[in-house]
Amino acid sequence: MVQRVLYISYDGLLDPLGYSQVQPYLKALGKSGIGLWVLSFEKPERLDDGEESTVLRDKLALCGVNWRYLRYHKRPAMAATAWDVTRGILTGLWLIACHRIRIIHARSYIAALVGLVLCILPGTRFLFDMRGFWADERVEGGLWPDGGVVYRMFKRLEKSFLERADAVVVLSRRGADIVEQWLVGCNPRQPVAVIPTCVDLELFKPDDRPQKPRNSNGLRLIYLGSLGTWYLIEEMLAFYAALWSRVPGSGFRVLTPSDPAVLKSAMARIDFPSEAAGNITVDSLPYERVPEALQEADCSIFFIKPSFSKQASCATKFAESLACGLPVVINAGVGDHERQVEEAGVGVVLKQLDHRHYRRGVEEMISLLSDSSLASRCRETAEGGFSLEGAVQAYLKLYRGLISTPPEG
Question: Rounded CA gap, 96 and 101, in Å?
Fold first, then answer.
């Protein structure tokens, strides 16, 4: 039986996150032969010329994906979101009626608001792809007040999503353990599946060209992603300063869509050594060229603020770095990364972020980079636990289970 799925994403497919973490899944799912309809909310500025959306629509169609988008509204915040959700529900009802869709796959919380209403239709099944703990992330990231009205409302909605869902997807085993505790006493019918943030192994892969000898001009450190909120740029700069002190001439490339002024401000706050500052570069690249930048580095770094919500996280840059044969330097307390790095021997985990641990981490990193099997071990780790194909097969298994099990009620 062909599964007919409506995939709802409040993140736009034309957003940077859409390119890296939504589009690849959709294309692979579409090629699997299921009937896939996608409803996304796109930023007006990305729709202005129309060419990008037309090209993407054609690419998705070639993969068997039917794409319908609505314009995203930002302000006033609550009213705009309510308006988007209402339009999403009406559009979803139309798509379900026209195409006899049976599975509603909602990616994260706002999409789940739409899905929660749509799944009241007879015969429909609801997959809550919760990703991380979004409401808690908003509070811990300083975007919402702790215990505020909006936070409490979304925690109640979260409980409804979990109780109503026929299946739940999270990004980490630690996150799944927490969700399973939340579900104690509820109807236990829904599986809680762990599908981590995955990577396109055909795009992200080691460079097969001869590499210059390591340490010939220092080591090449790279950070990939946004600056601020969760990402501890001051601590990463402090680690790089420790590396520079140990291996003068080492470089630090910051590949980010964020304003470079954020980095300069962080450097001023920690009294960053001026001799090392000249070897920091800040730029951005199209998504397709990110593997090139990773291939040119010796080690990838990311420090993320550890918190309750981050137990459920899986950083995109983690799998992308490993897929390119690049080891990682990370801090403890984020998703399953600490265990994954230590078990596979593919990086350095800092238990604390202070100067003593930075110096120790630099020594561990230098020692690790002398291992001739390191790059292949990183790649094997990505292939074994973070492949896009593996994630797609896991989703298809969930879809088959939802169709074979009749809805309750």
Answer: 5
Place of tokens 């599964």: 3
Instruction: With H, G, I as helix, E, B as strand and everything else as coil, classify residue 171.
Output: coil
Alpha-carbon span 171 to 314, nearest angstrom: 6
CB distance 349 to 331 below 8 Å: yes
| 73, 80 contact by CB (below 8 A) | yes
Rounded Cα–Cα distance for residues 161 and 130 (Å): 9
> What is the SS3 assignment for 167?
strand
pLDDT at 212 over 70: no
Q: Can the peptide bond before residue 76 be classed as cis, meaning omega within 30 degrees of 0?
A: yes
- pLDDT at residue number 399: 95
Residue 191 vs residue 248, higher pLDDT: 248
AA identity, residue 47: L
Query: Greater confidence, 77 or 6?
Result: 6
Q: What is the CA angle 257-258-263, rounded to 5?
A: 130
Number of residues assigned to the chain: 409
- Evaluate if residue 347 carries a pLDDT over 70: yes
pLDDT at 215: 47
| Rounded-to-integer distance, Cα 45 and Cα 142, Å | 26
Q: Which residue bears the tokens 């609550």?
A: 78
Spatial separation of the C-alpha atoms in residues 371 and 345, rounded to whole Å = 10
DSSP 3-state assignment of 288?
Answer: helix
Percent of the chain with pLDDT over 90: 80
- Which residue type does 98 have? C
The answer to whether residue 216 scores a pLDDT higher than 80 is no
Considering only 102-106, 212-216, 282-286, 387-391, which range has the smallest mean pLDDT? 212-216
Q: Could you give the 3-state DSSP secondary structure of residue 82?
A: helix
Answer whether residue 271 shows pLDDT above 90.
no
- Two tokens at 383? 């292939």
Number of Cβ within 10 Å of residue 145's Cβ equals 11
Domains of the chain plus CATH, in order, are: 4-196+387-404 (3.40.50.2000), 220-385 (3.40.50.2000)
For residue 400 the two structure tokens come to 């088959």
CA atoms of 371 and 348, how far apart (whole Å) = 13
Across the chain, mean pLDDT equals 92
Q: How far apart are CA 67 and CA 368, in angstroms?
A: 45
Backbone angles phi, psi at 173, to 5 degrees: -65, -35
DSSP string, 312-325: G---HHHHHHHHTT
| Mean pLDDT score, 101-106 | 97
